[in-house]
From TrEMBL, chain A:
A Pfam family per the record: ABC2_membrane_5
Protein name in the entry: ABC transporter permease
Keywords of the record: Membrane, Transmembrane, Transmembrane helix
Superkingdom of the source species: Bacteria
Membrane-spanning parts: 20-37, 43-67, 88-108, 120-143, 155-181, 234-252
Taxonomic source organism: Myroides pelagicus
TrEMBL record, chain B:
UniProt domain Periplasmic copper-binding protein NosD beta helix: residue ranges: 147-346
Gene3D superfamilies according to UniProt: Single-stranded right-handed beta-helix, Pectin lyase-like
Organism this protein belongs to: Myroides pelagicus
UniProt cross-references to SUPFAM superfamilies, sorted A to Z: Pectin lyase-like
Identification of the protein by name: Nitrous oxide reductase family maturation protein NosD
Claim: Repeat is one of the keywords in the record: yes
Superkingdom of the source species: Bacteria
Keywords: Repeat, Ubl conjugation pathway
Pfam families named among the record's database cross-references: NosD
Pathway stated in the Swiss-Prot or TrEMBL entry: Protein modification; protein ubiquitination
Automatic annotation (TrEMBL), chain C:
A Pfam family per the record: ABC_tran
Keyword tags: ATP-binding, Nucleotide-binding, Transport
Gene3D superfamilies: P-loop containing nucleotide triphosphate hydrolases (3.40.50.300)
Any one GO molecular-function label of the UniProt entry: ATP hydrolysis activity
PROSITE patterns: ABC_TRANSPORTER_2
UniProt-listed SMART domains: AAA (SM00382)
Organism: Myroides pelagicus
Highest taxon of the lineage: Bacteria
InterPro entries in UniProt: AAA+_ATPase (IPR003593), ABC_transporter-like_ATP-bd (IPR003439), ABC_Transporter_VariousFunc (IPR051782), P-loop_NTPase (IPR027417)
Domain ABC transporter: 2-226
Protein name: ATP-binding cassette domain-containing protein
Length: 260, 418, 235
C-alpha cells in the first residue's frame, strides 16, 4: 500500500491541479492577510472558505482522480498487489496531496505574517486539522461514489450533489425543521443533527474557537455544555474520526468485492 | 453689612469648633478603657475623630447619631453575621479604611455593612467589605462620597444576595473608584438623581454591574463592567449620560452590555462594548443618542426591541460582531447613518470617505436566531449566507428603509477625550 | 496449467459466462468469440479482476479464490493501455518493476526491439496510441513469467512492430510458457496459435487445434471456419 501511496502522491503532486489548488490557497492566504492586517479576522474568513471549499474541492478531485486513474488502476489490479492496498493507497495519495496543498498553501502566508508570534496559532492548527479531516472525509465519499458508478457523468453528478446536500440543503432542511417546531425543546435534536453532518460539525468546532462562544450563552445550556466542555470537543473529534473511518472502510469493502 | 458680619462670625465659630474642641479618641483592643468602637462612639462628642487601631473587633449595630470621623488603622470589624454594622444617622460622618466582614443575611431585612440614612456630607472611603449581604446602603441622603471602597461578595443567585452599593432616594452622590464583585447588583440606584458614577469596576455580579431605576440626570463615566448578567441596566430613567465606559464579556441568555428600558433623552457616547452576548438592548426608549462607541466582537451589537422613537446611532464603529443589528417594528425616525460597519461591502469611487451605496445592517438570520435560538448553530453556514444575501438583495422580512445612507469607509477614529 | 471449471459470471442481469470448462496447457491458446462473448471477462477472472459467481479456477493446481500472490506468476497485457499521465516512460517502467518487486529485470532488449529509446524520457501523456501500446507490451513481456495473458495485443501496432510481436510470442512459446491471446485479427491468431478456444453465448463452443476446427466445420480456410461458426449460430 505504501508503494501505491507513494506513486499516487508523486503522480498527483506533479499534476497541474495540485499546483492550482496550492496556489489558490497561497493567494487566498496572502490576500486575506493583506486586506485584513489582522490574523484573527483572516482566520474567520478563512473558516468560511475552508468549510465550503475544502469539501467541494476534495469531492471533485477525489472523483476526478478516481475516473482519471481507472485504466491505470486496472493495470495495477493485474499486478501481484493486494486489492485493498491499491485503492487505499490511491485514496490516501489523493487526500494527502490535497491536505498538503492546504497546509503549505495557507501555512506560508500565515507564517510570513507572524503566525508564530500571535496567540492565534492554536486556532490556526484547529483550522488546518479540520481542513485535513474534511479532505479525508470528502475524498473518501467521492471515491465511494466512483467505485459504485461506472458512468463518469453520473458519478460526477452524484458527488457534486452529495456536496451540495451536506453543504447547503441539509442545513436548509434542518433549519426549516427547527423553525417549524420552534415551540418544542430542540436542543438535543439540534445537537444530534449537527453531529451527523461533518461540515456542520467542523463549522461548530471552529466557531467555538472563534466567535460563537459569545452567542452560545443565548441558546441555553445544552450546546454550551456539550461543545464548550472538553468531553464535547473530544466527542466531536471522535465523530469526525468516525466520519473518516466509515467511508474509508467502505472503500475497502467495496474494492474487495468489485469487478473491473 | 451686619448680616454679613453675623455670617462670618458663625463660619468662624464653626471653624474654631471643629478644630480646637474636637478630640481624638483612640480605640485599641489592648486599651482597657476604650476597647470597642461602640464605646468610643458613645463617648465621642460631635466632630470628634475616632482612631481604631489594628485588630479584629467583633461588633455590630454601631449607630452613629453625631458628626464623627472614624478612621481605621488596619482594623477589622467582624459583624459575626448578627445584622448591620455601621448605621449612620447624622450628617458629616466619615468612615474610612475599615475592613468589614460577616454582615448578617436576612430574607426580611436588607442588612448592610454600612448604612447611611437621612444624612448629608458623609464620606465612605477606602473600606473593604467581605462576607456581606448588602455592602453600602444609602437612604434619603445627599452630597456624600462613596470612594475607593472594595466589595467582595460570594453571590451565586439573585434570590439570596444583596447589592454592593445601593442608593435609595439620594441626590448628588459621588461614587468613584470602587470595585465591586460577585454581588447581585454591583451598584444600584433607585429614585436617585444627579449622581456621578466614575471610574468604578463591577465584575462577575449575578445581575447587573450598575442598575438604575427611576433615576434621572446621573452620569456614568470611565467605568468597567465585566462579566455581569448585564453591564448597566437603566430602567424608567431620563437625562442620563454614559461615556468612556468599557462593557465586556457579559455573556448569557439574558446578558447585555447595556440594557435600556423606557429611557429617554440620554446620551451614550465613547464607550467600548466587546464580547457581550448583546452589547445594547433597547426597549421603549426615545431620543437616545449613541455616538462614537466601539462595538467589537459582540453577538448582537444592538438589539432594538421596538417602541423606540427618534434615536440616533451615528459615528460608531461596528467591528466583527456576529450581528450588528436586530430590529423590531418600523423605522420610527431612528437614524443609523454615518457609522463604520466592518462587514460593509460597498465601495467609494468618489473618494469622499463615504460608501457610495447604502449599507443594510440587518441580516435575516438574526431574526431567525431571535425566534429560534437553537438556529445559532447555523451561524456562518453556506445556507445562511445564501438566505442573508438574497434578503440583502431584495428585502422581504426586514424593514426596507433601515439603512445607513452614509456608511464610513474607514474605521472612525474617535477622539476619546471629548 | 490453468484449469477452469464451470465458470459463471453475471453482470447485473446480463449473463456473460454460463459454465465455462477449460484446460489451458503450455503453448499459445487463442480465445475467440464474437463481441461481448466474454473473452475479456474470462481473462479478468483468471487475474481475479472479476470475481466469478460460480465455478473455480486453478492455476498450477492452486485455487485462486481470494488469493493475490499467484499474480506474481502472470504477465498481463490489458486491452486499453492507459498510464498515469504525469510520469515519463522510464519512471513508469521503474515503478512497475518496483511494484512487482522485481527491480533487477532488464527491459533494454524489449526497448530496443520496439525502438522506444527516444521516448524514454517523454511524458506518457505526449505519446501516440501505438507507442503506448508498445510500452504496454514491454511491461507485459519484461517480467518473463510462466503465464502470459495478452488482450488484443495488436491494437495500434505498425507492421514492423507487429512482426516483432509475433517473434516475441514465438520466442516465449519456445520457453514453454502458457500464453493466452484474445484477438480479432484472424491471420494473427492463425499464425501464432496452437489451440483455439471459441466462446459463444458464455460457453466453450469449441476447444482444439486449428486443424481440428477446420475439419469440424468442413472449411479449408481458418477465417471461413470461424465465420462458419458464427453464421451457423446466428443465422
Amino acid at each position: 500500500m505504501l508503494k501505491i501511496l507513494k506513486y499516487s502522491f508523486y503522480d498527483l503532486i506533479r499534476s497541474r491541479w495540485s499546483y492550482i489548488y496550492f496556489l489558490f490557497y497561497l493567494i487566498l492566504g496572502f490576500v486575506l492577510l493583506f486586506l485584513n492586517h489582522d490574523i484573527g479576522k483572516a482566520i474567520i474568513t478563512l473558516m468560511n472558505v475552508i468549510i465550503v471549499l475544502v469539501p467541494l474541492i476534495s469531492t471533485i478531485f477525489g472523483i476526478m482522480y478516481y475516473y482519471d486513474s481507472k485504466e491505470f488502476t486496472e493495470l495495477l489490479l493485474a499486478l501481484p498487489i493486494k486489492r485493498s492496498s491499491i485503492f487505499l493507497g490511491q485514496y490516501l495519495g489523493i487526500s494527502l496531496s490535497l491536505s498538503m496543498s492546504l497546509l503549505i498553501g495557507l501555512g506560508i502566508p500565515f507564517l510570513s505574517y507572524g503566525l508564530l508570534e500571535s496567540g492565534i496559532i492554536f486556532d490556526f492548527i484547529i483550522l488546518i486539522l479540520i481542513g485535513f479531516f474534511l479532505t479525508l472525509i470528502f475524498s473518501a465519499l467521492a471515491y465511494n461514489i466512483g467505485l459504485r458508478n461506472e458512468n463518469k457523468i453520473k458519478g460526477f453528478g452524484l458527488a457534486i450533489l452529495l456536496w451540495l446536500f451536506l453543504a447547503v440543503i441539509y442545513d436548509g432542511i434542518f433549519l426549516s425543521v427547527l423553525m417549524l417546531f420552534g415551540d418544542y425543546p430542540l436542543e438535543n435534536i439540534t445537537l444530534v443533527g449537527t453531529v451527523l453532518n461533518p461540515i456542520d460539525l467542523s463549522r461548530i468546532l471552529i466557531l467555538l474557537k472563534l466567535d460563537i462562544s459569545a452567542l452560545l450563552g443565548y441558546t441555553g445550556a445544552v450546546f454550551k455544555k456539550f461543545f464548550g466542555g472538553t468531553a464535547g470537543s473530544l466527542i466531536s473529534f471522535l465523530i469526525l474520526l468516525l466520519w473518516t473511518y466509515i467511508p474509508i472502510y467502505l472503500i475497502y469493502k467495496t474494492a474487495k468485492k468489485k469487478d473491473f | 453689612m451686619r448680616k454679613l458680619f453675623a455670617f462670618y462670625s458663625i463660619v468662624f465659630f464653626i471653624f474654631l469648633g471643629s478644630n480646637s474642641w474636637a478630640k481624638r479618641i483612640i480605640v485599641s483592643a489592648s486599651n482597657s478603657s476604650i476597647s470597642s468602637v461602640k464605646h468610643a462612639i458613645e463617648i465621642a462628642q460631635s466632630n470628634d475623630t475616632i482612631l481604631v487601631k489594628s485588630g479584629v473587633y467583633q461588633e455590630s449595630d454601631l449607630i452613629i447619631t453625631k458628626p464623627l470621623t472614624i478612621i481605621s488603622e488596619n482594623a477589622t470589624i467582624d459583624g459575626q453575621n448578627k445584622g448591620e454594622i455601621f448605621i449612620v444617622k447624622a450628617d458629616s460622618v466619615t468612615i474610612k479604611n475599615f475592613t468589614i466582614i460577616n454582615v448578617g443575611t436576612s430574607y426580611i431585612k436588607d442588612f448592610a455593612a454600612i448604612r447611611v440614612r437621612d444624612s448629608k456630607a458623609f464620606n465612605i472611603e477606602n473600606n473593604t467589605i467581605k462576607e456581606l449581604f448588602f455592602g453600602i446602603y444609602l437612604e434619603k441622603s445627599k452630597n456624600g462620597r462613596v470612594v475607593n471602597n472594595k466589595i467582595y461578595g460570594k453571590a451565586k443567585n439573585e434570590f439570596n444576595s444583596g447589592n454592593g452599593i445601593q442608593l435609595w432616594y439620594c441626590n448628588q452622590i459621588l461614587i468613584q473608584g470602587n470595585y465591586v464583585e460577585k454581588v447581585r447588583d454591583g451598584i444600584y440606584l433607585e429614585f436617585s438623581n444627579y449622581c456621578t458614577i466614575d471610574n468604578n469596576t463591577s465584575k462577575d455580579n449575578v445581575r447587573y454591574g450598575l442598575h438604575f431605576m427611576f433615576s434621572n440626570n446621573d452620569t456614568v463615566t470611565n467605568s468597567r463592567y465585566i462579566n455581569n448578567g448585564a453591564g448597566v441596566a437603566i430602567m424608567f430613567s431620563k437625562f442620563m449620560q454614559m461615556s468612556h465606559n468599557i462593557f465586556s464579556d457579559n455573556w448569557g441568555s439574558a446578558a447585555y452590555g447595556v440594557l435600556l428600558k423606557e429611557v429617554n433623552d440620554t446620551q451614550i457616547y465613547a464607550n467600548t462594548f466587546s464580547n457581550n452576548t448583546t452589547a445594547i438592548n433597547i426597549e421603549g426608549s426615545n431620543r437616545v443618542t449613541y455616538t462614537h462607541n466601539d462595538f467589537i466582537s459582540n453577538g448582537w451589537a444592538i438589539n432594538s426591541r421596538g417602541a423606540n422613537y427618534h434615536n440616533k446611532v451615528n459615528y460608531n464603529n461596528f467591528l466583527n460582531n456576529s450581528f450588528d443589528l436586530l430590529y423590531h417594528g418600523q423605522l420610527n425616525q431612528n437614524s443609523f447613518d454615518s457609522n463604520y460597519w466592518s462587514n460593509y461591502t460597498g465601495y467609494d469611487l468618489d473618494k469622499d470617505g463615504i460608501g457610495d451605496i447604502s449599507h443594510r445592517p440587518i441580516k435575516l438570520f438574526s431574526y431567525v436566531v431571535n425566534n429560534t435560538p437553537e438556529a445559532i448553530i447555523f451561524l456562518r453556514s453556506l445556507f445562511v449566507d445564501i438566505i442573508d444575501f438574497s434578503e440583502k438583495v431584495s428585502p422581504v422580512f426586514t424593514p426596507d428603509n433601515l439603512v445607513d445612507h452614509k456608511p464610513q469607509i474607514k474605521k472612525i477614529n474617535h477622539d476619546k477625550n471629548n | 496449467m490453468i484449469k477452469i471449471t464451470n465458470l459463471h459470471k453475471k453482470f447485473a442481469s446480463n449473463e456473460i459466462l454460463k459454465g465455462i470448462n477449460l484446460n489451458i496447457d503450455k503453448g499459445v491458446t487463442a480465445i475467440l468469440g464474437p463481441n461481448g462473448s466474454g473473452k475479456t471477462t474470462l481473462n479478468k477472472c483468471i487475474l481475479s479482476m472479476v470475481y466469478p459467481d460460480k465455478g473455480t479456477i486453478e492455476i498450477n493446481s492452486q485455487n485462486i479464490h481470494s488469493q493475490w500472490k499467484y499474480r506474481k506468476g502472470i504477465d498481463y497485457l490489458p486491452q486499453i493501455a492507459n498510464f498515469p499521465n504525469n510520469i515519463t516512460v522510464n519512471e513508469l517502467i521503474k515503478m512497475i518493476k518496483d511494484l512487482r518487486q522485481e527491480s533487477l529485470k532488464d527491459e533494454t532488449p524489449l526497448i530496443n526491439l520496439f525502438k522506444l529509446t527516444p521516448y524514454l524520457d517523454k511524458k506518457l501523456t505526449n505519446l501516440s496510441g501505438g507507442t503506448k501500446q508498445k510500452i504496454n507490451l514491454v511491461l507485459a513481456f519484461m517480467f518473463d513469467n510462466d503465464i502470459l495473458i495478452l488482450d488484443e495485443p495488436t491494437t495500434g501496432l505498425d507492421p514492423a512492430a507487429l512482426i516483432s510481436l509475433k517473434e516475441l510470442i514465438f520466442k516465449e512459446k519456445q520457453k514453454g510458457k502458457t500464453i493466452l491471446v484474445t484477438s480479432h485479427i484472424m491471420s494473427f491468431v492463425e499464425e501464432i496459435s496452437d489451440q483455439i478456444v471459441f466462446i459463444l453465448e458464455g460457453k466453450t463452443y469449441f476447444h482444439g487445434s486449428i486443424q481440428e476446427l477446420k475439419e469440424s466445420t468442413n472449411q479449408s480456410d481458418f477465417q471461413h471456419a470461424i465465420a462458419n461458426i458464427l453464421t451457423d449460430n446466428y443465422a
